[in-house]
Amino acid sequence: MDQIVASRLERQSVLARGNPPQLVVVIDEVVLRRPVGDGSVMAGQLAHLAAVADCEHVQVRVIPAESPWHTGLAGPFVLGRLPDGTELAYRQPVTRSGRDRSDRHR
């Protein structure tokens, strides 16, 4: 578990470095409302999301719960633009357990 947390914190540190990338996060409203842990855990998670959303290079968008099915419900993906203008999309492979492969212990 410590390795998983360390890996995620390392990925997050990219947003705090000099010349950070633009980040647009699209979150389904249902995810924000689903209880995880107790109230203090949820409050901490939402406070962190709000703090990150205050960064100039970060946009957080929420898809209303009443919206119809959309492609994002099939799983997380990343859209990127390279310095030369090339655009790409990447979808993290997911195991049968629903965990993304980057979080597996080796």
General description of the model:
The protein has 106 residues and is α+β, with helices and mostly antiparallel strands. Helices cover 30% and strands 19% of the residues. It is built from three helices and four strands; from the N terminus they run H-E-H-H-E-E-E. The strands form two sheets. The protein has a two-stranded parallel sheet. The protein has a two-stranded antiparallel sheet with strand order 3-4. The longest helix is centred in the middle third of the chain and has 15 residues, at 39-53. The radius of gyration is 15 Å and the shape is globular.
Which SSEs are present, and which pair or pack?
Elements: H1 2-13, E1 23-28, H2 29-33, H3 39-53, E2 58-63, E3 78-81, E4 87-90
Parallel strand pairs: 1-2
Antiparallel strand pairs: 3-4
